[in-house]
User: Fold these one by one.
Assistant:
Number 1:
Amino acid sequence: MPDSIIGQPVDRIDGRAKVTGRARYAADVPSGMPVAYGVLVTSTIGRGEISRVEAGEAERAPGVLLVMSHENVPAQGPFKAGGLAGQRHARAKPQLDGTRIHYYGEPVALVVADTFEQATAAARLVRLSYRTESGSYDIGEGRRLAYPPEHIVVGKADSKIGDVDRAFASSAARIDATYTTPYQSHNPMELVGSLAEWSDDKLVVHCATQLVNSTHHSIASTLQLPLDKVEVVSEFIGGGFGGKLPIYGDAILAALAARQLKRPVKIVLTRQQMFSVTTHRAATIQRVRLAAGNDGKLTAIAHEVWTQSARMDEFAEAAAASTRAMYAAPNRLTTHRVVPLDLPVADSMRAPGDAVGQLALEQAIDELAEKLDMDPLELRLRNEPDQDPEKHIPFSTRSLVPCLQQGAKRFGWDRRHKTPGRMKDANWLLGLGMAAAIRPNYRQPAHARVRMDENRRVVVEMDMTDIGTGSYTILAQVAAELLQVPVDAVSVHLGHSAYPETPGSGGSFGAASCTAALREACLALKKKIDAGQGSGNLQAEGQSEPGEEYRKFSQYSYGAHFAEVAVDSTTGEVRLRRMLGVFDAGRILNAKTARSQLIGGMLWGVGSALHENAVVDTRSGAFVNSDLAGYHVPVHADVPTAVEAVMLAGFDDKSNPLGSKGVGELGICGAGAAIANAVYNACGVRVRDYPITPEKVLSGMMRSELAQQR
Ligand code: MOS
């Protein structure tokens, strides 16, 4: 359809509002009343009890209105540990709930004052005494305490088919390698923050949340209020990445303090607090065993994962989950074990599980290819499954091979020298690497409302969020196409709990779920228009949920990453020179915003490979590099312009009626492994302990030089 609006690279309809400052983020929302400012005080021990709170000095400080601690916090709904995504983020989140300290940096008090500066100054005057207990903060040491988790994101903790050990013992080529990935922290530009206001007995919370609906439930159940006494507003969100799936102390404490002070209260976390008060991606230890015949056909795949979980709230990083669908092999084993530590709560971060699982698996495949003396592209092609290898059901679509082949062609993969260290540019050693990517496609029930007035202006309402991904724009495109109006005739209203319920933004399910519901609403409206019902304002609602196709078909999106790096032969510094990702995520809803998502994911892969590492002080349980000076993410200087994402034309009618699949988390999957494999190809150093920092590369190069001299 040449005149299709869906798919076009339409500019963000909210772009102008964002660049002119009219887009209101939670902390920017003005109030009709003078706002009071809250600042959190956080624990300076990792495990123990609060023995004393001395608030007097803080209370007497200029401008201070309230100091809240476990001693005077109002009653709240009880906390239930664990749970899977949906329920997990709708749980009550009681704050300052007792004397127990579960992790370093846990909120222990709130100071509210007339100004932010007064609250910040007074927060330093709250004195807490603790009875410190020795805690477990080291995943390596804690491994002996590991246990199977109740849930992983999808499926069971373990899977086993055939006999991996036997196949492993009798195969021509094998790899048995252990990879480690560090703690990672979401660092969206917008800090987590909330503004809470009461009018009579009704609470309005403006907050940064990906999931308006579960946030609505979470706030209502914590404050023990009926849902209709709580409104949640989150119209613009400056990045989420999973870190804004749950809500945190800012939302709850702002609501409690505002009720008490009869005045709006705003609380914004500091960048440092983001590392402990919000969730993080858990560190992992991953053992990967691969066995193959001389023909390169895998006979066994084993992927065993150990991952940190907060002792207080179980969450398992499902790093081996996508290994269950990546390659064919008759003998298979995946396991997940959580290591309970006295650290902040782990939860989802962009492509939870898959992002770090593929860092390990896709490096192991490269290692096996070398053992077999086979091109790593060819090895992947030889192990393409004809159905889901563990569920034994067909894939809805399977396009890993076209992604690999087109990527190889466009990138010039044939220019790679299979022996490391052969390509040079002055002092730089050059290398090419590649990796495959898969990411499950999820869908959730969603609802939408659409109106059209006599001038054919359309209004869409959903409690969906736009976390920077382009939700506003793709929903406008869908409504415009189905109702045959221009995109600029559509106003999209999102991020409000009064609007029809959606799953929000998470797990890359937002677009496929919400566009399906909006389509139903538009079709219903069209029927009314065609029937000539009413004059002027017409309104319709629609809903949509995943059907049988999600049980009958294994649904994934696919990709292939190719990277060229340069390694400084003197310092071990790694520079990305160019990178290409080729992807199939079904029908692309907006070529521009989808490309941005994919490139964003790829660059996050660069960060995972080379930069990111939230370091735990294993004596105290504190994240020590908790700001953007200490916690490195790729910046412009780390990223050349030659980074490109290509999207194959696809349509998956099993995913949703529009044929689209989730795209937001696909780009990060496998991306870091392509970099790691390129580093190896450049300099012959295999770093299995991410991130691949200069000192690790350099010591590897020095070891191999020494070995050569002997
Ligand atoms: Mo995503 S990590 O489910 O926001």
Note: The pocket of dioxothiomolybdenum(VI) ion is lined by residues 210, 240-242, 245, 348-350, 352, 506-507 (CB under 6 Å).
Number 2:
Amino acid sequence: MNLNPDILELLKNPKRALVVSLPVRMDNGRIKVFTGMRVQHWDAFGPFKGGIRYHPQVCLDEVKALAIWMSIKTAVVGIPYGGAKGGIICNPKEMSVNELEHLTRRFTHEIMDIIGPYRDVPAPDVYTSEREMAWIYDTYSEAQGYAVPEVVTGKPISVGGSLGRREATSRGTVITIREAAKRLKLNLKGASVAVQGFGNVGYYAAVLIAEYGSKIVAVSDSQGGIYNPDGVNPKKVMEHKNKTGSVVGYPGTKQISNAELLELDVDILIPAALENQLLAENAPRIKAKIVGEGANGPTTPEADEILYKNGVFVVPDILANAGGVTVSYMEWVQNLTRESWSEDEVNTKLEQRMVQAFNEVYQVYQQEKVHMRTAAYIVAFRRIAEAVEARGIFP
Ligand code: NAD
């Protein structure tokens, strides 16, 4: 795309990275200090935007990478946001609700100077949910002295969350997979699907693609995976996970590892867990016709080349999971205008935006003869470059 090297130089670096120490009095009476971070990558179009991840292995480099992806993602779907990401190094599975609430509120307090409805609007990510977003909203509002729902998205409906937000990322993933399937003349009815990760993104992706008549033959979580060639009902699997803590052990299925799940002979693979799952090492064994990246960064650049050569159609994360930030944007607009839209209105707008973004990327994919990820980067960087050039460099 002949990107101006000055713009590349600019975009290689996040604008701001804040690392904070978060003392929390744990239930046992002792104080534990956690590390939190918020990285703001670039904001040429509008406020920074991105999720907050709670994970024992989260680190600054990962958060920086995720922030850059957010800048690119918002540009692919053309919404007026920049990119950001946050993280706290912690293991939420070993913490009580009380400890998580104190941690979330302290983090909000520590990053308060750099977030805000017109500065930076956080959202959920791995191991954070509506509950944490409500705490962020409350803490920020208490400090301001009035309700500021537009400071964070992915909130519960009762406090200004948008209808359709919970399923939005997955709905977008499934829309882009459907569009890819049309181009490949693959019928979604009866198509076999494997989903890695059974959290917010993976679960709803399984439910929504099953509505097209696809068969969910395998799902997994951090404990491992399950497989049944005749398909499982994702809602029943979730009931089992809620009772036992994992999808593993769901009746009538064979236990498989996360690595085995990726290599199953399926039509569609949806990685919806974490980064770096499809690598140079396992990419030659991927049999899926379509990989729809619900997760951020599941495929390494080396694996990308192998999949492309082998004719696997990858719908890249910055397009496939952009439905979440798209409906987050709608939530923010509803909050700013103090309106609430119907679920149909939200889903219709999401459908339009995702299909338009898919078509724009697909057009570049055909014209430039590059894989879909490069095509998506081209679409995004054209938009970002135009905005950066128009605004110029301060001072
Ligand atoms: P989540 O916490 O709701 O779910 C994560 C799931 O992954 C859980 O089922 C967990 O058990 C599983 N998991 C964790 N480690 C695993 C491993 N090593 N192997 C297999 N499974 C593992 O998180 P989420 O919000 O669904 O996010 C999943 C991915 O989607 C992340 O990459 C995230 O950045 C991306 N994403 C999320 C959103 C959103 O709106 N939530 C939007 C865009 C992208």
Note: The chain is about 45% helix and 20% strand.
Number 3:
Amino acid sequence: MHPLGQTRTTIKSNHAFIAPDGHIKSSLQGWENTQVTVLISPHMLKRPRFAQYIAYMSDESSVGQPAQGIQRVIFIMDGHINLTVGGETYDLSEGYFAYIPADTNHSINSQSNSKLLVFEKNYVKPTLPTDYPKVVTGNAWAVDGSPFLGDESALVRTLLPDTLEFDMAVNLFTFQTGTALPFVETHIMEHGLYLLEGQGIYRLDESWYPIQAGDAIWMGSYCPQWFCAIGKTQSTYIYYKDINRDVLSL
Ligand code: UGY
Ligand code: MN
């Protein structure tokens, strides 16, 4: 509760810092018995090219495939779901993720009270010949981490293959306390971020935000960005970025 009309949330033209204190739940086409909080969408200024939302499901909830051309990544933050796709059923619990290519018939059935983070993006076909992306699923925390730019205290787990057929990446980024991004990044790729654990300071453009688990961020193209993990425990965020496509086709 923040008295006197205060909130930690700030929405700017090239970034947004979204704290849970302002979340409102609603329903969304296709998501049966589910409440969603849409964190990032093309309705923001500068029109993000993807969506990021939280889906709150119960053991009576389900969802089918999204609209034509949209690919989906789910990350299970709490609970337990079954994903049925391509004649297989995957049992996914906390910490597991799945990538479902666009136009792929599938269903997600929650087996308990579950909380999912969802990223969706219109699939942009590569102009070079490649295969169509395939379903990817697994335990995100079990993926091997790589030191970010040589820093063993900043580990990136890349959940999707970095091959031409994929036009998006979703990674887990873990920082030991006291570890920072080595410089202020400024790049064309957009990000959608959700802090899963820990806390720190996030610089976005000319503003510095204290960030804690449960906060989300949208970073538009060319938004200067920097993070330092502080506190007594490690910090991990899951984040989206667009990759692998011609600059002018984005
Ligand atoms: O992949 C990235 O661009 C990443 N280093 N950015 C970020 O964590 N803000
Ligand atoms: Mn970045």
Note: Residues 38 and 53 are 4 Å apart (CA to CA).
